[in-house]
Design brief:
Elements: E1 2-7, E2 11-17, E3 24-30, E4 72-75, E5 85-92, E6 96-103, E7 108-117, E8 122-131, E9 137-142, E10 144-147, E11 154-161, E12 164-172, E13 176-182, E14 194-198, E15 209-215, E16 220-226, E17 232-238, E18 245-247, E19 252-254, E20 257-263, H1 267-282, E21 294-296, H2 298-301, H3 307-320, E22 324-327, H4 357-366, E23 369-374, E24 378-379, H5 384-388, E25 408-409, H6 415-431, E26 434-439, H7 457-474, E27 479-482, H8 492-495, E28 500-502, H9 509-519, E29 528-532, H10 546-553, E30 557-560, H11 569-589, E31 593-596, E32 604-611, E33 614-621, E34 632-633, E35 643-650, E36 671-674, H12 675-680, E37 683-684, E38 692-700
Parallel strand pairs: 21-22, 21-30, 22-23, 23-26, 26-27, 27-28, 28-29, 29-30
Antiparallel strand pairs: 1-2, 2-3, 4-9, 5-6, 6-7, 7-8, 8-19, 8-20, 9-18, 10-17, 11-12, 11-14, 13-16, 14-15, 15-20, 16-17, 24-25, 31-32, 32-33, 33-38, 34-37, 35-36, 35-38
Helix pairs in contact: 3-4, 6-7, 10-11
Length: 701
């Protein structure tokens, strides 16, 4: 038996290699400076059970005697369904461990690899299964598995729906299983493929927390399970439909990558690790410049496209400081509403007699980059493409399949479909100076079968990745946004092929504050599209001031979803000021780490962004304050012996309703306070009205 170690400055992972079994994780946590005595890994053996201790391994099966859900479910004509592993090869470096396991039946080879990113303490777990036999092997399940600390009784996961993404759900882990299953063919609003486990009552700053994220954009399963012996495991993987993966001799299945990290200081440590990991390891920007402020045409003009309307919108957007113009739905042949035209990716010359060249000229003159909306995976039955190739969709022959938004789904696993889509998108990018694609996907998959009638959701996701990779290789200067009815396709898998998420179709600042707070656990600000919509939200009916809407969009990848042609002077100036403010603070927001602050009122959302020596503080009052006098907010990540200058960036427009005087520090022209005082004593907050926002800058003096 050999114990392998991966170390960073702050963490250690120990895995023991067993010669006649799968390896076992013996330790994952704070940095160890000496190896533990193996006697500490030998627990008591209870009565009325097996006569030997069966540890949790990295690849549990139905044969190991832990009586937990196996990672592997496979068989060959009913044989080899309860495999046992034998370790045949090991490779170890300072940051990576790799094991090769062969099942005793000889049917399956497992290549398992874990990499520790020493700068961020994030683990990446890669697994590949190979059929080593001379007959076809049915693979029904592979769930990448990781042991959890016994004391982790709390589970924080995220559900949602259209215009209401990233709803947190906190549950106690039962003796049994908590399972989240997505069958919608895309990442889904319903079950974000990531969750946290932790010690009871863990908070932003306190408690031991583990976090996991599955980098996959299709069907998936997340499971947390505990048995009567106290064994606890996390599992995640692609959810495979019946018969979906049949491995021919020598064929292999590569599972989605599982990412994991751990923090001993609450979930702020998780956010810091994942945000920096994404920046360093997953993102591949076409350029190194700042993320441009968008103007998107959708909520400004919808399908009412005229050359004058588009040109006027560009002029108005450039005047307030926008840097990129995204022409949304309605530009292609036959697309006068959302019932027709999808699949016919050529410019509608009845609306654009000179195609998109006049708009491109307008954008060049006004200094705006050119972005374009597409939805390549979909087709309307009312389209030339569908009339010519009705067989190109995912469907089970002779069965009724419901439409969604009058759409069906193209079968990307067909070579002809891949070729058609690439050729049309490539032609658009060749003809016009487009630097950005808003890639939308507006329906869930139902009865997603290929031409043979076999389930194809897993291969459909792989084919999507392949199409994106081919397009990016042909046009490396083009950025791509992942949009799926808002935030239904947000994960590390799609992020390796794209550059931005459209977090939600809801631009209501009240809802966006909550969504952005929880999304920041997994993603940095620069990939989270956040737009300033009109004062009246079309998804909720709420109204907010320009300052509140802009102050919310300030902390993401800012854009405008508003008809800026018809602004009054006050709104135009407020919007211009907000965009100027974003550009001023963009280096901090898009390079800093966002951490939650413990709010002084339960009806607040508060956070701090740190890119030393600069810090930004945001406090959003969602509802009426619980108490008449708020407490003092303690800041984070400051130097105790340094003094900091406080300045107000955004102030609630109404501050006299609920208080007679403001806190004393707000009445001074200059405020300089020690880091120790701000972190230990805290900053007294004003009494804030519902749906009001306070933003501060904190900089070293």
């Amino acid at each position: 038996m050999t114990v392998y170690a991966l170390h960073s400055e702050s963490s250690t992972l120990l895995i023991e290699a067993l010669p006649n079994d799968a390896p076992v994780v013996r330790y994952w946590g704070a940095r160890l400076h000496q190896s533990p005595d193996p006697v500490l890994w030998q627990p008591a053996l209870p009565q009325a059970g097996l006569d030997e201790v069966r540890p949790l391994s990295i690849a549990p099966t139905l044969a190991d005697g832990t009586f937990l859900e196996p990672a592997l479910r496979s068989h060959q004509h009913g044989q080899g369904w309860a495999e046992q592993w034998q370790l045949t090869a090991t490779q170890a470096t300072d940051a990576e461990l790799a094991f090769v396991l062969i099942s005793r039946s000889g049917l399956v080879r497992l290549d398992w690899q874990v990499t520790l990113d020493t700068a961020t303490d994030v683990l990446s777990i890669h697994t590949t299964l190979t059929n080593q036999s001379d007959a076809e092997l049915a693979l029904e399940q592979w769930l990448t598995t990781w042991p959890l600390p016994r004391e982790h009784n709390d589970v924080l996961s995220f559900t949602g729906r259209w215009v209401n993404e990233f709803q947190p759900r906190r549950q106690a882990l039962p003796i049994g299983a908590l399972e989240l299953t997505n069958l919608k063919g895309r990442t889904s609003h319903d079950h974000f493929p990531g969750l946290l486990t932790g010690s009871p009552g863990f908070t932003a700053e306190q408690g031991d927390v583990c976090a996991f994220h599955l980098g996959w954009s299709g069907n998936h399963r997340l499971r947390v399970e505990r048995n009567q012996q106290g064994h606890t495991q996390f599992q995640a993987g692609a959810h495979l439909l019946p018969g979906e993966i049949q491995l021919k001799p020598g064929a292999h299945f590569t599972a989605p990558v599982l990412y994991a990290t751990r923090s001993s200081s609450g979930f702020n440590g998780i956010a810091a690790n994942f945000q920096q990991f994404v920046r360093s390891n997953l993102l591949n920007w076409p350029g190194k410049g700042s993320r441009p402020v968008h103007i998107n045409t959708w909520e400004a003009i919808y399908f009412d496209h005229t050359q004058k309307a588009l040109d006027d919108l560009a002029e108005a957007a450039a005047a307030v400081g926008a840097e990129r113009y995204v022409l949304d739905d309605g530009w292609f042949r036959g697309r006068r509403d959302d019932t027709s035209g999808l699949g016919d990716w050529t410019v509608d010359e009845s609306i654009y007699p000179d195609k998109l060249h006049p708009l491109a000229a307008t954008l060049k003159r006004t200094g705006l980059e050119f972005g374009l909306w597409v939805e390549p995976e979909m087709v309307n039955p009312d389209s030339d493409l569908y009339r010519e190739h009705p067989e190109w969709v995912l469907a089970i022959a002779e069965q009724h399949q419901p439409l969604a938004r009058q759409q069906r789904v193209l079968d990307l696993t067909r070579v002809a479909v891949q070729t058609y889509l690439f050729d049309h998108l490539n032609a658009l990018l060749d003809e016009y100076p487009i630097t950005y694609l808003k890639w939308d996907m507006n329906r869930d998959l139902v009865q997603a079968a290929d031409a043979r009638g076999q389930a194809a959701t897993f291969r459909q996701t792989e084919a999507l990745y392949a199409l994106l990779a081919k397009l990016r290789k042909a046009h490396p200067g083009v950025e791509i946004e992942s949009c799926a009815s808002g935030g239904a396709r947000m994960d590390y898998g799609i992020l390796q092929h794209t550059h931005r998420f459209w977090l939600s179709d809801c631009n209501d600042a009240h809802e966006r504050q909550r969504m952005q707070q929880w999304a920041a656990l997994f993603f940095p600000a620069e990939v989270l599209g956040s737009h300033i919509g009109p004062s009246h939200s079309h998804t909720t009916g709420r109204q907010h001031t320009t300052e509140v809407r802009a102050g919310t969009a300030l902390f993401g990848h800012m854009g405008i979803e508003w008809d800026v042609r018809h602004l009054n002077d006050a709104d135009r100036q407020a919007l211009t000021n907000a965009i100027d403010l974003h550009k001023e603070w963009r280096p901090v927001i898009h390079n800093g780490i966002r951490r939650s602050l413990q709010p002084v009122d339960p009806n607040q959302i508060a956070f701090q962004i740190t890119a030393a020596p600069h810090h930004m503080i945001s406090v959003f009052q969602q509802n009426m304050p619980e108490l008449s006098v708020p407490g003092s907010m303690r800041l984070l990540e400051l130097q105790p012996d340094k003094r900091y200058r406080l300045s107000i960036i955004l102030l609630p427009a109404k501050t006299g309703h609920l208080m007679k005087t403001r806190p004393a520090w707000m009445t001074r022209d200059e405020v300089r306070i020690s880091g120790e005082s701000l972190m230990r004593v805290g900053l007294p907050l004003p009494v804030m009205d519902p749906d009001s926002l306070l933003v501060l800058a904190v900089s070293e003096d």
